[in-house]
Write a structure and sequence with these properties.
By secondary structure, the protein is mainly α. About 70% of the residues lie in helices and about 0% in strands. The chain has one domain: Tetratricopeptide repeat domain (Serine Threonine Protein Phosphatase 5, Tetratricopeptide repeat, Alpha Horseshoe), CATH 1.25.40.10. The relative contact order is 0.12.
Length: about 100
């Protein structure tokens, strides 16, 4: 199963998003974390990585893990530091991170 999920990380990402929407925060955190932790060449080499980071942050907020959420938001925002300031996802992430202080 691990080989499949590493090769087709988008399947894991969709499952993680579904778990979060269903309120299964523990499963969502585990799936998002699995994507974030794939060594370079896996999800980190794709746009799925940043999607997984923001998902991990949101799942950790939903799970009540504020410090873990802050770390994931900070990592996401660090990657997007040079992005256009008016990107909707970047604005959402900044507002969500600011709410955790």
């Amino acid at each position: 199963m691990q080989r499949f999920e590493t090769r087709w990380a988008d399947v894991t990402l969709l499952r993680a998003k579904a778990q979060l929407l269903a309120g299964n925060t523990t499963a969502a955190v585990a799936d998002f974390k699995q994507l974030v932790d794939i060594p370079t060449g896996g999800a980190a080499a794709t746009t799925l990585y940043t999607d997984a980071l923001i998902g991990l942050a949101r799942a950790r907020v939903a799970a009540g893990d504020a410090s873990g959420a802050k770390a994931a938001y900070d990592q996401f925002l660090g990657l997007w530091a040079g992005a256009d300031a008016d990107l909707p996802l970047l604005g959402e992430a900044r507002r969500e991170r600011a709410a955790l202080k």
